[in-house]
Design a protein that fits this description.
heterodimer, A: about 120 residues, six-stranded mixed β-sheet, four-stranded antiparallel β-sheet, B: mainly beta
Chain lengths: ~120, ~120
């Protein structure tokens, strides 16, 4: 069975601080995908990134960066110079890449990020 | 227009009532999913369908049923709603691969259901 753990239930920061959201996963599959989604107060789910298990390169997109470490089964998400608009619930998710479980997402519990002005 | 739509967006109902939540997509994807979101639990998979004739139970299917009326439509039913089914419900779609969006799921806007 696969499992995703986001240890931080809530994080509160002041604008312009850097913040890292942790994600640890468990899977017996060798080929899988990892995702981060953002859920702003309006409720929709916004796709942020997908990472293939064979690609351990870190990725940066503007103020967002992701650190994938297969050795520790972690896929952490950092927001640099946070802004009030970053306030949201963030979900880490895991999906198998093959077999009958292909495509199904297992989500972490979510981290509520509040950025204060 | 949104690629994945859900109706209704909000619904309040009473215990014991039958409720149907509908999902439609214009993305041309074969795979569709229903999730529910509860505070502190993230999203959990209820049912999924890889094509019109292939429907599978997810992690928490008890108390729910689904119907895949067409490639573009996937409905979730609560035959006899109970208060602990109060949650935010999401429909999602994904393709089968061979494209840049391979394995990415596209979510609808969600349906907020309250069972009194």
């Amino acid at each position: 069975a696969q499992k995703v753990t986001q240890a931080q239930t809530e994080i509160s920061v002041v604008e312009k601080e850097d913040v890292t959201l942790d994600c640890v996963y468990e899977t017996r599959d060798t080929t899988y995908y990892l995702f981060w989604y953002k859920q702003p107060p309006s409720g929709e789910l916004v796709f942020l990134i997908r990472r293939n298990s064979f690609d351990e390169q870190n990725e940066i997109s503007g103020r967002y960066s992701w650190n994938f470490q297969k050795s520790t089964s972690s896929f952490n998400f950092t927001i640099t110079a946070s802004q009030v608009v970053d306030s949201a619930v963030y979900f880490c998710a895991l999906s198998y890449a093959g077999g009958t479980s292909y495509g199904k997402l297992t989500f972490g519990q979510g981290t509520i990020l509040t950025v204060h002005p | 227009d949104a690629d994945v739509t859900q109706t209704p967006r909000n619904r309040i109902t009473k215990t014991g009532k039958r409720i149907m939540l509908e999902c439609s997509q214009t993305k041309g994807h074969d795979r569709m999913y229903w999730y529910r979101q509860d505070p502190g639990l993230g999203l959990r998979l209820i049912y999924y369908s890889f094509d019109v004739k292939d429907i599978n139970k997810g992690e928490i299917s008890d108390g729910y049923s689904v119907s895949r009326q067409a490639q573009a439509k996937f409905s979730l039913s609560l035959e006899s709603a109970i208060p602990n089914q109060t949650a935010l419900y999401f429909c999602a779609t994904s393709d089968q691969g061979g494209s840049r969006s391979y394995n990415e799921q596209f979510f609808g806007p969600g349906t907020r259901l309250t069972v009194l």
